[in-house]
Design goal:
This protein is an alpha+beta fold. The protein has one domain: 2-Layer Sandwich (Alpha-Beta Plaits), CATH 3.30.70.
Length: 71
Amino acid sequence: MRADRQLTTVRVDRVACTGHGVCRALAPREVPLDEWGYPVPSQVAIEAAAADALVRLCPAAALLRTRADRG
């Protein structure tokens, strides 16, 4: 990953998550799933544009942007 790209931390609300797997489909390298289809770990650092898509497209609204870092 290039150093000039901005990274954002996305947190999974484990209570709200229903295991649809949309996050995995959009970011397979950053969002591994457990054996039940839930994201592991509960927090990932991802490029800002990809984070926007993850949060916007999550059918359970279980993903939240928490902060931005420089990567």
